[in-house]
Amino acid sequence: MPFELPDNLHPDCAPIAWLLGTWRGNGHGDYPTIDAFQFGQECIFTHDGRPFFHYMSRAWIVDEQGEKVRDAAIETGFLRPKADGTLEWLLTHNTGFAEVYHGTSEGAKIEVSTDAVVRTETAKEYVGGHRMYGLVEGDLLWAYDMAAMGQKLQPHLWGRLVRQ
Which cofactor names does the annotation list (predicted)? Predict the structure, then answer.
């Protein structure tokens, strides 16, 4: 689906403007401490003229037929691109942790790794992550590697979302 660049697009945001909009689709998850699962997801990237995007994502677990079983993760934050192609991404999660990511954008791909993780007293043990997002055949493909629960950094979630 085509989209229009906002008239007030901040110049630092231009290289990642391909992210703007609402994306929906499906994903898969796996981890040594978690049984494999499938989920639906909606991601929204918005911009108001300042040098950042607001990001919000919500997910829900689905069964083998793709029917919603229950709500799952929610995350929100700010993606802050810089003129030199570097990125900062601040994220908070409903599960009780916040992350600061640093990385780069190049063409229709962004890649970020955690610089800091802060957890609440009741959050599960999580120590770091790595994310990659790319525009492939008009869709948003993404992957998330996680280090948690005594496990080393390894693949955890991946999905394909379609612009709405």
Answer: heme b
Question: CA geometry: angle at 43 spanning 41 and 44, to 5°?
Answer: 155
Q: What is the pLDDT of residues 24-63, one digit of tens each?
A: 999 999 999 999 999 999 999 999 999 999 999 999 999 9
Q: What is the pLDDT of residues 57-103, one digit of tens each?
A: 999 999 999 999 999 999 999 999 999 999 999 999 999 999 999 99
**130 annotated ligand-binding residue:** no
At residue 46, what are phi and psi to the nearest 5 degrees?
A: -125, 165
Residue 33, marked binder: yes
Judged by DSSP in three states, 21 sits in: strand
Return the structure tokens found at 25. 């689709």
- Residues 10 and 31: their CA atoms lie apart, in Å, by 38
Q: Is 109 annotated as a binding residue?
A: no
The answer to whether the pTM exceeds 0.85 is yes
Taking each continuous run of H as one helix and of E as one strand, the counts in the chain are 0, 10
